[in-house]
Amino acid sequence: MADELIDVINTLGKPTGNVVLKSEAHKLGLYHASVHIWFYTKNKEILLQKRADNKDTFPGLWDVSVAGHVGAGESPENSAIREIEEEIGILISKNDLKFVGTYLSEKIPKPNLYDNELHYVYLSQLTTPVESLTLQKDEVSDVIMIDINAFISTLKDPIRSKEHVPHDEAYYTLILKEIQNKLH
C-alpha cells in the first residue's frame, strides 16, 4: 500500500489548498475525500469486498464493493473509475456510475489514526461475473455477492455485523434505499 498525496478539504468538501500524504492526514485528523462505489445486480445482490489483512484501517473486514482515496487534483468521478479498475479489474465509463451523494464520516479506527472523510458515493450495476474479477491483493483479499435482504439481516445482527466496517446506520440506510430504488 503506497502512501499517496491527497487534497485537504473542509467538512463541506471545499479544498483548503493544502496537499498532504494520506498517512499525514490520518495522523492529524485532516479531512479528505474518498470514493465509495456500490455494485449491485438485477438479481438483488450486492458485491462486498473483504479488506486485505495489511490495511491500516479495518483490516480483514467486509466493506463497500470498491473504495479509495481521491488523489490530489483528481475528480471524485475519475478516482472512482481508477479505483474500480485497480481493485477489481473492471473498466467502466462515467455513464456506468450513478452519483448518490456525499457522506461525512469521522472514525478513529485505532489510537492515533483519525479517518475523517467525505465519501463521494456511487452506484453501478455489476454485469461482470464475480469469478472474472481481478482482485488487487494488497487491497482486497476476497469478494462475495450477497442478497440485499441477507445483507440487511447481517447488519442488524450484533455478532455478524462485527465482520463489517462500522459505517453509520444512516450511511447504510442511504445506500440500501438507493440500490432498492434502482431495482424497482
Word description of this protein:
The chain is an alpha+beta fold and 184 residues long. It is built from four helices and nine strands. The strands form three sheets. Strands 6-3-8-7 form a four-stranded mixed beta sheet, with helices on both faces. A hairpin with a 5-residue loop joins strand 1 (5-9) and strand 2. The protein is globular.
What features would you highlight for this structure?
184 residues; alpha+beta; four-stranded mixed beta sheet; three-stranded antiparallel beta sheet; 4 helices; 9 strands; 37% strand
Describe this structure in a few short sentences.
The protein has 184 residues and is α+β, with helices and mostly antiparallel strands. The protein is 23% helix and 37% strand.
Strand order across the largest sheet? 6-3-8-7
Low-confidence regions: none
**What is the helical fraction, as a range of percent?**
10-25%
Largest sheet data: 4 strands, mixed
Quaternary state of this entry equals single chain
Topology:
Elements: E1 5-9, E2 15-21, H1 22-28, E3 32-40, E4 45-51, E5 62-63, E6 66-69, H2 76-88, E7 98-110, E8 113-125, E9 140-147, H3 148-156, H4 169-182
Parallel strand pairs: 3-8
Antiparallel strand pairs: 1-2, 3-6, 4-5, 4-9, 7-8
